[in-house]
Amino acid sequence: MARFVLRKSKSELDLDEYRNGAGFKVISFLRPVEAVGTPLTLTRGLLNLVPGEPITWKGRAGVQVLTGPFELNETGGKLPFGASFAKCLLSAGENDYELTVPKIDLPLIRLALGLESA
């Protein structure tokens, strides 16, 4: 069972905790790319990042397991959540998603997705 820790004030500290086995739940908004532009398709949930376990996203509709290979690119654009969030294109295996997350969590997400070296 993973232990989850509270967020740190600096993302470097979260990276160290993750490398040492701690899990994180990151508030996020997710929708399939084909649903972009459709009203009410952006759903709030939690991106679960636990070392050694599959990346999952949990929202109102249930749990979705995201499988790699992964690619994550910031796309920019106007966000109703303010400047502290980043809009990204997440390619996960054969599916593409619009993922919106706090900017401070991007390094942690990249590490969990295997896009940054541990």
Descriptive terms for the model:
2 helices; 14% helix; 43% strand; globular
Can you offer a commentary on this structure?
The chain has 118 residues and is mainly beta. 14% of the residues lie in helices and 43% in strands. It is built from 2 helices and 8 strands. Strands 1, 2, 3, 4, 5, 6, 7 and 8 form an 8-stranded mixed beta sheet that branches. The protein is globular and about 40 Å long. The two termini are 21 Å apart. The relative contact order is 0.22. The model has no long low-confidence stretch (mean pLDDT 85).
Mean pLDDT: 85
What structural class do helix, strand and pairing data support?
mainly beta
Distance between the terminal alpha carbons, to the nearest Å? Answer: 21 Å
**Largest β sheet strand count, sense and barrel closure:** 8 strands, mixed
Q: What order do the helices and strands follow?
A: EHEEEEEEEH
Beta-strand content bin: 35-45%
What global shape is seen? Answer: globular
* Helical coverage, percent range: 10-25%
Enumerate the spans where pLDDT stays under 50 for 5 or more consecutive residues. Answer: none
Give me the Rg, rounded: 14 Å
The tally of strands reads 8
Short description:
With 118 residues, the chain is mainly β. The protein has helices at 11-19, 106-112; strands at 3-4, 22-32, 43-49, 55-59, 62-66, 70-74, 85-92, 95-102.
